[in-house]
């Protein structure tokens, strides 16, 4: 479905009125309505609870209208999502300001239909006088839909090669330059950690790199973990732990979607998008516990857990970004189960080496309804990454502070003085909510985009 067609400027065309009502304001609103409206509201036991809908016969020119329960204040991103999913196809005219609700209106109608035919249903088009809010809502909805579609695609159809093609398809229309390094060329071009993780798979690992924008502009590095499937390697996952591992490229999907937003808005930056892509598979030449591998930065790593592979591919990508002295470095990764244990499926863990930057992103996330929670880069835990045979281990012993030690590992490859954000995100909705079906999801994307707009827009 063309998401851009779902939000349109209000005009003289006929449309069904869509009236947001709060629970606190319901009685006052009813006083101004006719007897037919009050009767219809009572008959449907409509209390204006969030996400509730009442269909009401029209007292005026319209045959009927819809009252939608919303929270107090400006409409949030998901305020109209339930209405967009439940109302019949047609054209609706929003009574009042759109706020951020255009996002949920669009995404509630997005479907992942690659593998099954969707039931035929027409669009619900929302007409609004809030013209300034429309384009931004559509752009963000398209970015979130991109993340969802990529994450929902199984590894049989989205390996490293297909992920590289997806990057090309998104960035080339904006005039970006793309470079893909694959297979043994990774060793020749000094990406040994990416090669080590992906060498056991039938599909060759890749370093996917895109640059866009005026070289004179501030350089912005965006990095995403692209593990297209994670078996755990020789430290193999149990079946339950492997079930969702098609989503282990969720960080790459976030990075690509954020890059798309940057380019579509023509943000005055020199964008450097880096996605290390590999499948963590098992074969005779798979990475082994106890192996010591090289990295692009020259540091050596003792492999204590082959299932801690995401940080290995990311460290080569971060080192590449650091060579170009960005003014800001951001990475997204479905990195640790520890972050999910600590924060659950809806809150990505945020790590940052700059307090002001972290505060800016957290505030932006709250403002746009895309919250994150900061965890510390607790320096004493660097001791957990010490190795007796190499510069460091890739995974600390034991279960303590797993998300923190993973972030500390990555921090070792960030150049001193470079502001850096790391999102340890789930990239998945474990249960459906209005506008957010079970499946792939963007978590932390819109918060980061709001911060970038504020800094560079």
TrEMBL record:
<keyword id="KW-0464">Manganese</keyword>
<dbReference type="GO" id="GO:0006508">
    <property type="term" value="P:proteolysis"/>
</dbReference>
<keyword id="KW-0645">Protease</keyword>
<feature type="domain" description="Cytosol aminopeptidase">
    <location>
        <begin position="305"/>
        <end position="312"/>
    </location>
</feature>
<keyword id="KW-0031">Aminopeptidase</keyword>
<dbReference type="InterPro" id="IPR048816">
    <property type="entry name" value="Peptidase_M17_N_1"/>
</dbReference>
<comment type="similarity">
    <text>Belongs to the peptidase M17 family.</text>
</comment>
<dbReference type="InterPro" id="IPR011356">
    <property type="entry name" value="Leucine_aapep/pepB"/>
</dbReference>
<dbReference type="Pfam" id="PF21337">
    <property type="entry name" value="Peptidase_M17_N_1"/>
</dbReference>
<dbReference type="InterPro" id="IPR000819">
    <property type="entry name" value="Peptidase_M17_C"/>
</dbReference>
<keyword id="KW-0378">Hydrolase</keyword>
<dbReference type="GO" id="GO:0005737">
    <property type="term" value="C:cytoplasm"/>
</dbReference>
<dbReference type="GO" id="GO:0070006">
    <property type="term" value="F:metalloaminopeptidase activity"/>
</dbReference>
<dbReference type="Pfam" id="PF00883">
    <property type="entry name" value="Peptidase_M17"/>
</dbReference>
<dbReference type="GO" id="GO:0030145">
    <property type="term" value="F:manganese ion binding"/>
</dbReference>
<protein>
    <submittedName>
        <fullName>Aminopeptidase</fullName>
    </submittedName>
</protein>
<dbReference type="InterPro" id="IPR043472">
    <property type="entry name" value="Macro_dom-like"/>
</dbReference>
């Amino acid at each position: 479905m063309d998401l851009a067609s779902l939000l349109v400027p209000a005009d003289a065309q006929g449309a069904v009125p869509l009236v947001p009502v709060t629970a606190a304001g319901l009685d006052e609103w009813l006083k101004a309505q006719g007897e037919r409206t009050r009767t219809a509201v009572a008959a449907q036991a409509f209390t204006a609870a969030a996400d509730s809908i009442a269909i009401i016969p029209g007292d005026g020119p319209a045959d009927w209208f819809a009252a939608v329960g919303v929270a107090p204040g400006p409409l949030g991103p998901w305020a109209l999502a339930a209405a967009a999913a439940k109302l019949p196809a047609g054209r609706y005219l929003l009574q009042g300001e759109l706020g951020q609700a255009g996002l949920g209106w669009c995404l509630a109608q997005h479907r992942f239909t690659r593998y099954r035919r969707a039931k035929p249903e027409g669009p619900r088009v929302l007409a609004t006088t809030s013209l300034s809010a429309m384009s931004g809502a559509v752009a963000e909805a398209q970015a979130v839909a991109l993340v969802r579609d990529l994450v929902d695609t199984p590894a049989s159809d989205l390996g490293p090669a297909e992920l590289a093609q997806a990057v090309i398809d998104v960035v080339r229309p904006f005039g970006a330059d793309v470079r893909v390094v694959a297979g043994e060329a990774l060793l020749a071009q000094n990406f040994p950690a990416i090669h080590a993780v992906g060498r056991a798979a039938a599909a060759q690992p890749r370093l996917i790199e895109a640059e866009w924008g005026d070289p004179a502009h501030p350089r912005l590095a965006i990095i995403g973990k692209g593990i297209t499937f994670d078996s755990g390697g020789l430290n193999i996952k149990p079946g339950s732990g492997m079930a969702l591992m098609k989503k282990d490229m969720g960080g790459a999907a976030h990075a690509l979607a954020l890059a798309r937003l940057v380019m579509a808005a023509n943000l005055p930056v020199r964008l450097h998008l880096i996605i290390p892509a590999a499948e963590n598979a098992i074969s005779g030449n798979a990475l082994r516990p106890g192996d010591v591998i090289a990295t692009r930065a020259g540091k050596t790593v003792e492999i204590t857990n082959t299932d801690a592979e995401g940080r290995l591919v990311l460290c080569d990508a971060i080192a590449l970004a650091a060579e170009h002295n960005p003014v800001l470095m951001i990475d997204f990764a479905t990195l640790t189960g520890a972050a999910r244990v600590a924060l659950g499926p809806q809150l990505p863990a945020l790590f940052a080496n700059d307090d002001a930057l972290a505060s800016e992103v957290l505030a932006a996330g709250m403002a746009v309804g895309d919250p994150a929670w900061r965890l510390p880069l607790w320096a004493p835990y660097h001791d957990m990454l010490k190795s007796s045979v190499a510069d460091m281990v890739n995974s600390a012993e034991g279960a303590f502070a797993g998300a923190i030690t993973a972030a500390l590992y990555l921090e070792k490859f960030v150049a001193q003085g470079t502001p850096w954000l790391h999102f340890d995100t789930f990239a998945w909705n474990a249960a459906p909510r209005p506008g957010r079906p079970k499946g792939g999801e963007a978590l932390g994307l819109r918060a980061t985009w709001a911060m970038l707009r504020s800094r560079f827009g």
